[in-house]
From TrEMBL:
InterPro entries, per database record: Depp_CoAkinase (IPR001977), P-loop_NTPase (IPR027417)
Protein name in UniProt: Dephospho-CoA kinase
Keyword Kinase: yes
Job of this protein: Catalyzes the phosphorylation of the 3'-hydroxyl group of dephosphocoenzyme A to form coenzyme A.
Pfam families given in the database record: CoaE
Main location: cytoplasm
Length: 205
């Protein structure tokens, strides 16, 4: 099974690109989505309320409250990540086991902090979603509740885009529109399938 690791800085188009892989029949595991789901879990919400009082509303983690806390004290990111990341990794392991049992030839892990958390070890191929910085800022700042301060805070915790691209096996340019990105994704999959059928032939020779 080929495990693709898809990453990219905030607003670069990871989720959209993951959706294009999904359209092509590739099973996708989305770490950001897992975090959002975990925040609705009672036990997780309790642990986060203990560490960050006032960040749980109605039994669920309120991401806006949590963001306000992090903006006041960015050192708290480490404390939050220590609670959340092991749970995300556990979900990821379960997903990979399930897909392996189902004999899926290619799967995709959408991991925003792939490089920052040593995730390169867990994947076979790295795809980076990227676009020009002005497009990225425009996209992110148009989101409700997003501020320049919050964007800068998140960017300060992410490996710069140029470094991500330098370490990628493939880059999907998401600044050219959805049809172009779809074509790029199809080409990546064709390349991976051709590679794996070549290596299959070599193994059997
Ligand atoms: C900071 C939080 C509250 C902001 O929530 P919000 O709904 O506004 O944003 P969302 O979760 O959609 O993330 C937006 C972007 O920020 C990135 N981001 C999120 N957490 C982090 C982090 N710890 N370090 C760097 N970038 C991060 C995301 O990957 C994404 O690209 C939330 O992202 C969070 O709880 N993060 C901690 C968990 C984490 O590390 N997630 C990353 C993937 S496992
Ligand atoms: N190929 C594309 N063509 C046109 N618009 C795109 C493309 N990819 C992404 N976008 C747009 O850019 C915005 C951000 O995309 P998306 O949510 O996929 O990014 P992300 O990297 O997952 O963001 P985050 O890091 O915050 O989770 C969305 O409005 C999306 O529609």
């Amino acid at each position: 099974m080929i495990v693709i690791g898809l990453t990219g800085s905030i607003g670069m188009g990871k989720t959209t690109t993951a959706g294009l892989f999904s359209e092509e029949g590739i099973p996708v595991h989305d770490a950001d989505q897992v975090v959002h789901d975990l925040y609705r879990d009672k036990a997780v919400a309790q642990a986060i309320e203990l560490a960050f009082p006032g960040s749980v509303i109605g039994g669920e983690v309120d991401r806006r409250k949590l963001s306000e806390n992090l903006a006041k004290n960015p050192a708290n990111f480490k404390k939050l990540e220590a609670i959340v990341h092991p749970l995300v990794h556990e979900r990821e392991r379960v997903f990979l086991d399930e897909q392996k049992h189902a004999s899926q030839p290619i799967v995709l892990l959408d991991i925003p902090l792939l490089f920052e958390t040593g995730g390169q070890q867990r994947v076979d191929v790295i795809v980076v979603a990227s676009c020009a910085e002005d497009i990225q800022r425009q996209r992110v700042l148009s989101r409700p509740g997003m501020t320049q301060e919050k964007l800068d805070l998140i960017l300060s915790r992410q490996l710069p885009d140029a470094e991500k691209r330098a370490h990628a096996d493939f880059v999907v340019d998401t600044g050219l529109g959805i049809d172009d990105a779809r074509r790029q994704v199809k080409t990546i999959l064709e390349t991976l399938r051709a590679r794996s059928s070549r290596s299959g032939k070599t193994d059997n020779a």
